[in-house]
C-alpha cells in the first residue's frame, strides 16, 4: 500500500514549510530514513527523511512551494503501483485548518507570507550586501551563478529564484575562478558583531525573527522560570583540555570548553532525569534519550540544533559531533530531528567575554544552562589566596517540572564533574 509523506512539524509551533529541493526524482528507490528532500523552516533548511521503503511514486509539491504542516508532499509505494494525483489531507492538516480559522491564528499566518522568498540572508561581495532567498542561493550555487551580477526583482531588491533561473538562461552571470563560492558566501569574521542600527531606522521583521519572538514570548508567558547560579573552578578542566588536545588519542579532534560542559551536563542528566523532560497536560514526560541542544548565533538569528543520543557518547565523540553539527547548521544540512529533537539546551556566551547571563527555556524543554566565560580570578582556598580559572553557570528551569532544590542539586553535580574533569573520561 502506498504511503503519503507529509510536511513534518519541525518545531512545536511550526505551521508551514517550504520544499526547497527534491533530492530524489519520481521513480527512484528510497529507504526508510534516507534524505529525499530539503525543507526550509522559519530558521533553517533541513533534510527530510522518508519514513517508508519503496519507490518515490509521485511528487506532489514542486520545489519552492510552501505548504501547511501535515499536507502530503509525496507518495512512496511499491514498484508499478498506481497512486492518485490529488493528495489527501491528514488529520494534522485538518487541525491546522481549524486553528487557521481563529482570528489570532489568521493574524499570525498573514504575517508569514506563503513564499520561501521572504526568508533572506546577507551575502557580502565587492559590490556591497546582497539580499537573496535561501532557495535562490542554493540554486545559484548549483548553477555556478555569480549573485553579485544579478539585479533582484523581489522586495527591497531581493534576488528571487526566478532571477537566478533567468540569469542562468542568459548565461552572463557565471562565476569565475576569481570569485569562488566560498568567498562569496561571507567575507566577514564569524564572530563579528552585527551591523549597528541607525537612529530612526525601521528594521523589517524577518520570518526567523518572527519565529524567535513567538517562541520566547510563549516561553516566558507559559513557563514559570526559576534560576540557580554557581561558580565553577575550571582550573583542572582547562589543564585536562590542554593535555587532551596535545595527545595522540585526540589528534584531529580538538576539545573545547563547551565540549566539557556538554559531557558534564549529559552525566548530570543521567543522575537527574527530570531536567531531560517536558511538561504535558497528561504528565511530566521524561525523554528516552539525551539530546543536547546547542544555542548558535547565525547570521539570520538564533537556532538551537541538538546533538542526538548523547547518553553513551564519549568526550571525544561529543567533541566531533559538536563540530559536525555547527558546520551543517551553517551549511543548511541539518536533519529534522536535530532541528527539533533537543531535550536539554546549553547556551554559551563565553566567547563574547560575557561573565554571566540568564537564558530563556526553549519549549518544550524543561531547562537550559547558561554559561559564561572562563576568567582568571583570585579565590580563597582554605586560608590562602590563589589565582584560578573560574566560570559562572546559571540554570533556568521549569518550576512545573522540577523544584529549586532539584535545580541546586543539578548544577552542583555539573560543578562537581567539571571540577573533577577526569570523571568525564570514564
The CATH homologous superfamily of the largest domain corresponds to Chloramphenicol acetyltransferase-like domain
Unreliable runs, pLDDT <50, ≥5 residues? 89-128, 177-193
Q: What proportion of the residues is helical, as a percent range?
A: 25-40%
Find the count of extended strands (DSSP E, 2+ residues): 22
* Separate helix tally: 11
Question: What is the CATH topology of the largest domain?
Answer: Chloramphenicol Acetyltransferase
Whole-angstrom Rg: 24 Å
Write down the domain tally. Answer: 3
Explain what this protein looks like in three dimensions.
With about 425 residues, the protein is α+β, with helices and mostly antiparallel strands. The chain folds into 3 domains: about 5-110, OB fold (Dihydrolipoamide Acetyltransferase, E2P), CATH 2.40.50.100; about 120-190, E3-binding domain (Dihydrolipoamide Transferase), CATH 4.10.320; about 210-425, Chloramphenicol Acetyltransferase (2-Layer Sandwich), CATH 3.30.559.10. About 30% of the residues lie in helices and about 25% in strands. The chain is built from 11 helices and 22 strands. The protein has helices at about 90-100, 105-110, 135-145, 160-170, 180-185, 205-220, 235-245, 255-270, 315-330, 335-340, 405-420, and strands at about 5, 15-20, 30, 35-40, 45-50, 55-60, 65-70, 70-75, 120-125, 130, 225-235, 275-280, 285, 290-295, 295, 300-305, 305, 335, 345-350, 365-370, 375-380, 385-400. Strands 11, 14, 17, 19, 20, 21 and 22 form a 7-stranded mixed beta sheet that branches. Helix 3 runs parallel beside helix 4, helix 8 (about 255-270) crosses helix 9 (about 315-330) and helix 8 (about 255-270) crosses helix 11 (about 405-420). Mean pLDDT is about 80; it is low at about 90-130 and about 175-195.
Amino acid at each position: 500500500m502506498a504511503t503519503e509523506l507529509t510536511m513534518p512539524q519541525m518545531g512545536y509551533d511550526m505551521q508551514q514549510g517550504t520544499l526547497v529541493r527534491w533530492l530524489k526524482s519520481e521513480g527512484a528507490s528510497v529507504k526508510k530514513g534516507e534524505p529525499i528532500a530539503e525543507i526550509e523552516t522559519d530558521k533553517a533548511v533541513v533534510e527530510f527523511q522518508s519514513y517508508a521503503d519503496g519507490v518515490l511514486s509521485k511528487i506532489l509539491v514542486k520545489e519552492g512551494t510552501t505548504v501547511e504542516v501535515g499536507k502530503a508532499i509525496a507518495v512512496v509505494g511499491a514498484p508499478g503501483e498506481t497512486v492518485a494525483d490529488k493528495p489527501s489531507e491528514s488529520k494534522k492538516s485538518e487541525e491546522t485548518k481549524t486553528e487557521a480559522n481563529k482570528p489570532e491564528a489568521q493574524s499570525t499566518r498573514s504575517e508569514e507570507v506563503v513564499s520561501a522568498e521572504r526568508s533572506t540572508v546577507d551575502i557580502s561581495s565587492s559590490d556591497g550586501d546582497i539580499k537573496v532567498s535561501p532557495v535562490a542561493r542554493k540554486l545559484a550555487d548549483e548553477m555556478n551563478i555569480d549573485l553579485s551580477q544579478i539585479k533582484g526583482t523581489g522586495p527591497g531588491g531581493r534576488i528571487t529564484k526566478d532571477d537566478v533561473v533567468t540569469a542562468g538562461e542568459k548565461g552572463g552571470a557565471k562565476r569565475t575562478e576569481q570569485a569562488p563560492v566560498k568567498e562569496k558566501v561571507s567575507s566577514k569574521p564569524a564572530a563579528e558583531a552585527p551591523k549597528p542600527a541607525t537612529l530612526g531606522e525601521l528594521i523589517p521583521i524577518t520570518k526567523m525573527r518572527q519565529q524567535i519572538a513567538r517562541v520566547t514570548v510563549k516561553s516566558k508567558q507559559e513557563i514559570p522560570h526559576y534560576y540557580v547560579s554557581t561558580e565553577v573552578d575550571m582550573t583542572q578542566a582547562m589543564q585536562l583540555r590542554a593535555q587532551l588536545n596535545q595527545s595522540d588519542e585526540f589528534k584531529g579532534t580538538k576539545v573545547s570548553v563547551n565540549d566539557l560542559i556538554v559531557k558534564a551536563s549529559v552525566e548530570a542528566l543521567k543522575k537527574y532525569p527530570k531536567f531531560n523532560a517536558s511538561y504535558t497536560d497528561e504528565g511530566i514526560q521524561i525523554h528516552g534519550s539525551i539530546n543536547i541542544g546547542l544555542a548558535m548565533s547565525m547570521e539570520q538569528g538564533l537556532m538551537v540544533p541538538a546533538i542526538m543520543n548523547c547518553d553513551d557518547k564519549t568526550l571525544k565523540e561529543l567533541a566531533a559531533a559538536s563540530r559536525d553539527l555547527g558546520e551543517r547548521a551553517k551549511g543548511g544540512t541539518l536533519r529534522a530531528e536535530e532541528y527539533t529533537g533537543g531535550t536539554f539546551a546549553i547556551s554559551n556566551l563565553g566567547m563574547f567575554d560575557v561573565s554571566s547571563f540568564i537564558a530563556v527555556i526553549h519549549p518544550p524543554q524543561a531547562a537550559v544552562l547558561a554559561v559564561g566565560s572562563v576568567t582568571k580570578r583570585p579565590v580563597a582556598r582554605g586560608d590562602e589566596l590563589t589565582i584560578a580559572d573560574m566560570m559562572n553557570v546559571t540554570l533556568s528551569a521549569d518550576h512545573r517540572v522540577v523544584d529549586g532544590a532539584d535545580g541546586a542539586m543539578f548544577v552542583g553535580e555539573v560543578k562537581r564533574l567539571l571540577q573533577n574533569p577526569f570523571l568525564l573520561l570514564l
